[in-house]
Amino acid sequence: MSEASELLSTIVEFSIGLAGFSGVIGIFIHRSGEWIYVDRYRIMNLLTMSLVPGFLAFLTLGLLPITDRAITVSAAAFALTVGMLLILIGRARAKVPAVDRSLVGPQIFVPMSGTFSVILILQTLVAIAVIDRYVLTIYYYSLVVMLLLAVVQFVRLILVRPDFSLARTVEDS
Fold it and tell me: Can you give the pTM of this predicted structure?
């Protein structure tokens, strides 16, 4: 139990730190005083992918002393959350203007969606007790993989920038 608590506490701390750095980067990329839709989309993805694992780990930390099925309950919440994310991220991506579509193109969208799908399947199997061994390991590494996706988004947000001569503001979208 204490090992699980330590692992989950680390996830919470890393998640909060990554979200904090995301805010700082958001301020620095907001250069002209106008937000373009693709930047807003990317920052929202980054914040979501960094805060969701932290929230789920925090939920699990709260459930561990209460029930023996804390991981199973949290896995069900994880599966539900990832399922909603798959739908919402796809819908929001469709709104990205054509001039900025390369910033959220298949090279990042397909692997991210595929990884989310694998996480969704694993967490669903844990939640319905098809997988009954190594549930903490599967749950923990799913959280870590989601945080790694957030780190990839973070790096892309810094290094891959839109062409500002073609960009439109959020209000224009």
Answer: 0.81
